[in-house]
Specification:
It is built from 9 helices and 16 strands. By secondary structure, the protein is an alpha+beta fold. The strands form 4 sheets. The chain has a 7-stranded antiparallel sheet, sandwiched between helices. Strands 1-9-8 form a 3-stranded antiparallel sheet, with no helix packed on it. The chain is globular, with a radius of gyration of 22 Å. It binds FE2/S2 (inorganic) cluster (FES) and fe (ii) ion.
């Protein structure tokens, strides 16, 4: 038996119960983890149309994702350069965003364009250099697999290095072909780490989600550590419930080799993107930690773009129904796990070497990120 639990005394938690409830721990995690890595900030389809924008929050920081009229995605600090007001609070299709305080306006590429009564005279404006210097402040970002990722600070790993293991493993799957089938938002009264741990917990599948398959199906899952910050598992022969998801088979994402057609990969791209991939569907549960005991999940289900039409509408619906049902079943489990963290007895959890190695690795990763930050 290898992994973080090898040789450990039972009854010892890797993270104490108050790591899931304490506001000071939560604040430290936001800066130690969420500001120091490439993290999920939103979906590219949230700004599908040129000329659209959507505010998001990462590490408690208000950000704005825009798609300019030329189709380019940008991410900015969502802050008016005059007095620091949050510029935008709603998804928008306005080509210019206006601050409600003194009506400065900005283009979706971040340029400052309107500054009424700049020097108290009607029609006055700053000189070009001043205007150029007062555009929205950009945030380093990237697009991958339908997601917008951002780096608020200096990431501990560059983007290419972060994504390389997934890009390599998923090279046969064409993730440029994603078409959004369905999405939903979940408010969960639980710490973000429990969301990840439950995602990595293959042991609960037959009990909480019996429709996905019997215990034998969960026994079939291999733990997979792709990189220090990409943890999860794989059903090498497909999830048992797959056949019943849709009667009309969905087309694969491009020319996926037959040997990989049934494989289901389940990976946490640390810290906040939980990814499920089969040859014909891709699901992301990405989340924003809001408080120590509240997390907002944004779940999106994608199919191949050739399955976008009405002939696949029942198949898309059947797939989404199953996946939403599974997530619905997890919500009360997460909230009950959270309530358990109020007890000091939750410091004495007994992670099982046979099932919980991946959870233990995640906890070790969190603990070491926090340690390195101190
Ligand atoms: S704070 Fe935005 S225009 Fe003054
Ligand atoms: Fe679950």
């Amino acid at each position: 038996m290898t992994g973080p639990l090898a040789g450990r005394e039972p009854g010892v938690s890797l993270l104490p119960a108050d790591a899931y409830t304490d506001p000071a721990v939560f604040a430290a995690e936001q800066s130690a983890i969420f500001e120091n890595r490439w993290v999920w900030a939103g979906y590219t389809h949230w700004v599908a149309e040129p000329g659209s924008s959507r505010p998001v929050t990462v590490a408690g920081r208000p950000l704005l994702i825009t798609r300019d009229p030329a189709g380019q995605i940008h991410v900015f600090h969502n802050i008016c350069r005059h007095r620091g007001m949050v510029l935008s609070e709603e998804p928008s299709t306005r080509k210019r965003l206006r601050c409600p305080y003194h009506y400065w306006t900005y283009d979706l590429d971040g340029g400052l364009c309107g500054t009424p009564y700049w020097d108290r005279r009607k029609g006055s404006a700053p000189d070009d250099a001043t205007k150029d210097a007062l555009g929205l402040i950009p945030v380093t970002h990237a697009e991958w697999a339908g997601m917008v990722l951002v780096a608020l600070g200096e990431p501990v790993r560059p983007l290419d290095e972060t994504l390389a293991p997934l890009r390599q493993r998923w090279a046969p799957v064409d993730l440029d072909r994603l078409h959004l089938a369905a999405e939903d938002r979940y408010e969960i009264a639980a710490n973000w780490k429990l969301v990840v741990e439950n995602f990595l917990d293959f042991y609960h599948l037959p009990f909480v989600h019996p429709q996905v398959g019997p215990a034998a199906a969960a026994l079939d899952i291999d733990d997979v550590v792709l990189a220090e910050d990409i943890l999860g598992g794989c059903y090498p022969r497909g999830a048992a419930g797959k056949a019943s998801k849709t009667e009309t088979p969905l087309p694969a994402f491009g020319d996926v080799p037959a040997a990989l057609r049934d494989r289901q990969d389940i990976f946490c791209l640390f810290p906040n993107a939980l990814l499920f991939l089969e040859a014909d569907w891709f699901q992301v549960i990405a989340f924003e930690p809001v408080t120590p005991e509240r997390t907002v999940e944004h779940m999106a289900i994608f199919v191949d773009r050739s399955a976008a039409g009405p002939e696949f509408s029942d198949a898309r619906k059947a797939l989404s129904t199953v996946l939403f049902e599974v997530n619905d079943q997890d919500v009360p489990i997460l909230e009950r796990l959270q309530r358990g963290r109020r007890s000091p007895a939750a410091d004495r959890n007994h992670l099982l070497p046979s099932w919980d190695q991946i959870t233990a690795r995640f906890q070790t990763l969190v603990a070491s990120a926090m340690e390195g930050h101190r």
